[in-house]
Amino acid sequence: MSPTVSVLVRNRDFRNLFLAELVVFGSDWFVMVPLLVLLPALTGSGVWGALVLAVDTGTLALLLPYTGTIADRFDRRKIMMAANLAALAGVLLLLGVRSAGTAWLALVAIAVVAVAKAFYSPAAQAALPNVLDPADLAAGNAVAGSAWGTMTVVGASLGGMLSAAAGPYASFWVAAGSLAVAAGLATLIRRPLQAPREPGAASPRTWAAIREALRYIAHRPRVLALVTVKSAVGLGNGVLTVFPLLAGVYGAGAIGTGLLFASRGAGALVGPILMRRVLSNRAWLLTGLALSMSLYGLAYVGASVVTWFPLVLVLVFLAHLGGGSNWVLSNYALQGEVPDRLRGRVFATDMMLATLAISVSQLVVALVVDSVSERTVLAGCGLVTVVYAIGWRLATRRLSLTEPASEPESTPSAGAAPESTPAS
Fold it and tell me: Of the CATH numbers 1.20.1250.20, 3.40.50.1240, 1.25.40.10, 1.10.645.10, which one belongs to the domain with range 10-190+206-395?
């Protein structure tokens, strides 16, 4: 039995966490793909789709510094459950998007869902090492890194097909039910999702906790390199805005949009699995990160010049094979560098920078999407990622991840206890 399958079979708590994430990620795409097809049909413009994506990522970016401190202070299991139920409420708001005059409600609903994700994501990512034994960390990361890609394939393709067959509102109902299931799965996790804290220590105030995490990142070049690496793919993420428009160019409609997102997910699924060997050799990580983001950019440049839709799907797959590899490699490296008491905040900062980059890319595309061709958007986003990858590798060429991670200096908040005790 392979290590990636073995860890799922042996570890019930990791399996429940993984299944909960599968359901959460799948519901996200059951919402997003039908919505990105619905809004241009209602409004006659691609701007609304770009604004939805920008609200999603922008809200995440604004909240993550705060929600990371919450993930380090409170019971991560309860955070995940509450976030899933809040996202469910946001999805139900989408049932009111019925005309151009109610298109604004989509922005409100997606903002609610994004707030929920901002709380869920740092808690789930920071919890991962706590449900895995040290020997299983590499295999567990490969499995967890494939969750998003797996459900992008399922959620995007099925969401596109269900939307084409039964309309977008059926997809919204499926997403709402899935989020209720995810909240239930979190209740089945029995291991504590936080390391024990020193008894009697006061919890740091929010801004003090954020400053502590930022100082930790700024004074450690390896951590700083790792929390900036996802921005390369983020700056190229504006391509997602034109997926529905690109499918229209080829006459593929909602099913074509679903296939584009599914190809994206398939790449993100395969990338982490292929990278499992790299995860076991820290000497390869920085080079692997540079190559993975370069593959993303070059594949989208290629997609901008080909004229056969199946080949576009292949190139989208390759791009996100690189993007998925980039994500899991940087997450694994950060888990080895950052202590548990800071992990939620550092991962939140990591995600904040990535989502800020995504928001910038999507807002720029929103400004030009009605005046330039889809191929120009693909080429521009791909080139931005390639240039960033080259600059990042030059800046990190003297760093190595083979030496042991340094311990943070002791600070008054170093032993801060969570304000809620994790269930045993």
Answer: 1.20.1250.20
Within 219-308, residue ranges assigned H as helices are 221-228, 231-235, 243-249, 253-274, 276-279, 285-303
Q: What is the pLDDT of residue 3?
A: 64
Sign of the CA dihedral 290, 296, 299, 303? Answer: negative
Q: For residue 122, give the nearest of 342, 357, 335, 345 by alpha carbon.
A: 345
Task: Please say whether the beta carbons of 320 and 268 come within 8 A.
Answer: yes
Amino acid (one-letter) located at 271? G
Within 8 A by CB and 6+ apart from 135, the residues are none
Does 403 have pLDDT greater than 70?
no
Of the two residues 110 and 345, the one the predictor is more confident about is: 110
Distance, CA of 233 to CA of 24 (rounded, Å): 22
Domain ranges of the chain: 10-190+206-395
Contact by Cβ (8 Å): 316, 110 = no
Q: Which of 17, 19, 29, 257 is nearest to 154 (CA)?
A: 29
Mean of all residue pLDDT scores within the chain: 80
User: Which among 345, 357, 352 is positioned nearest to 60, based on CA atoms?
Assistant: 352
Task: Name the residue type at position 112.
Answer: V
Non-local (6+) Cβ contacts of 282 within 8 A are: 333, 336, 401, 402
423 confidence band (pLDDT: 50, 70, 90):
very low
Q: CA geometry: angle at 403 spanning 401 and 404, to 5°?
A: 105
Highest mean pLDDT among 12-21, 40-49, 195-204: 12-21
Cα 89 from chain centroid?
A: 21
pLDDT digits (tens, 9 = 90+) for 220-271: 888 888 888 888 888 888 888 788 888 888 887 778 887 888 888 788 778 7
Note the pLDDT of residue 419: 32
65 Cβ contact list (under 8 Å, min separation 6)? 210, 345, 348, 349, 352
Residues in the chain: 424
